[in-house]
Amino acid sequence: MDEIDKRILTSLLGDGRSTLRQISKNLGISPQSLQYRLNKFQANNIIKKICPLC
Hints:
This protein has 54 residues and is mainly α. The chain contains 3 helices and no strands. The protein starts with a helix and ends in an 11-residue tail after the last helix.
């Protein structure tokens, strides 16, 4: 896990309602790169489930 991965996770924890485009813009990476990394997180069980919290 590199620094960008940590920043992605921090961003998701801070505001899970942000769009991929907003997150990628804030981090200075392409939306495609962000999507690739999110898929990698799910494949490695770093992110197990995406769901709304009540």
